[in-house]
Amino acid sequence: QSALTQPASVSGSPGQSITISCTGTTNDVGNYNLVSWYQQHPGKAPKLMIYEVNKRPSEISHRFSGSKSGKTASLTISGLQAEDEADYYCCSYAGGSTWVFGGGTKLTVL
Amino acid sequence: QVQLVQSGAEVKKPGSSVKVSCKASGGSFSSYAMSWVRQAPGQGLEWMGGITPIFGSANYAQQFQGRVTITADKSTSTAYMELSSLKSEDTAVYYCARAGGYCSSTSCFDYWGQGTLVSVSS
Fold first, then answer.
1. Looking at residue B100, what is its pLDDT?
2. What is the pLDDT along chain B (122 residues), one digit of tens a residue?
3. Is B102 within 8 Å of A48 when comparing Cβ atoms?
4. Contact call for B107 and A96, based on CB within 8 A
5. Helix count and strand count (H, E) for chain B
6. What is the tally of helices (H) and strands (E) in chain A?
7. How many Å is the Cα radius of gyration of chain B?
């Protein structure tokens, strides 16, 4: 089980949009519509932002959206705000009651 | 509302074992898989393994096979993660996480414990 591939860092100015990619294999991202995204602020537990590729918990801002094409999933954050600055992790179900996370992406709001 | 409360920080010697607990309150403990995820300092999240209490069987990530044991006590709604043959590289924050809200058993993790720091040093 290799970690899903994410860019180490992305940045954007307030109000802009950014997209974080998450590339897996045919054993995980490419085989299941069970990709989720987590936001993590320093010293805090991860927080669910997107589940099942593009579903958003009701308490999560509409500025966050997810998508998937083939073996690559993406998280888009529109209208960047200072409080969006955090680490973001993708995660995919990989069959047999196992999961795999991405390496994480540090988002900097300039 | 589901809450996961983990045991406190541990300091261990190389070669020893550590057992971390995760007590659940609210919701159904037995129906949803409880996973353990670790995060080394400055590093990413790593899924270690999980157990569905109602079935009692655990699944582990390949890199932890043979070194980690995950169990669950339905009577106390508590899951445990024991890691043996500790090395300095096992120094990390260990989280328990599970579904039960928006997440189905295979889709994601709604609920997270507060994390338990395990430090391994001679």
1. 84
2. 899 999 999 999 999 999 999 999 988 888 888 999 999 999 999 999 999 888 888 999 999 999 999 999 999 999 999 999 999 999 999 999 998 888 888 889 999 999 999 999 99
3. yes
4. no
5. 0, 11
6. 0, 9
7. 14
* Assigned token pair, B117: 């720091």
On chain A, the residues whose CB falls within 8 A of the CB of B102 are 48, 51, 55, 57
Closest chain B residue by Cα to residue A50: B108
> Which pLDDT value is given to residue A37?
98
Strands B18-25, B3-6: pairing is antiparallel
- The half-sphere exposure of B82 on its side-chain side, counting CA atoms within 13 A, is 9
A33-57 mean pLDDT: 97
Half-sphere exposure of A77 (CA within 13 A, CB side): 29
Distance between CA atoms of residues A20 and A27, nearest Å: 21
Q: Where would I find the H helices in chain B?
A: none
All residues of chain A having their beta carbon less than 8 Å from the beta carbon of residue B50 are 97-99
With a CB cutoff of 8 Å and minimum separation 6, the contacts of A10 are A18, A19, A20, A105, A106, A107, A108
Phi, psi of B93 (to 5 degrees): -95, 130
Residue type, B34: M
Q: For the CA atoms of B37, A53, B56, B54, what is the dihedral angle to 10 degrees?
A: 130
pLDDT for the residue numbered B56: 85
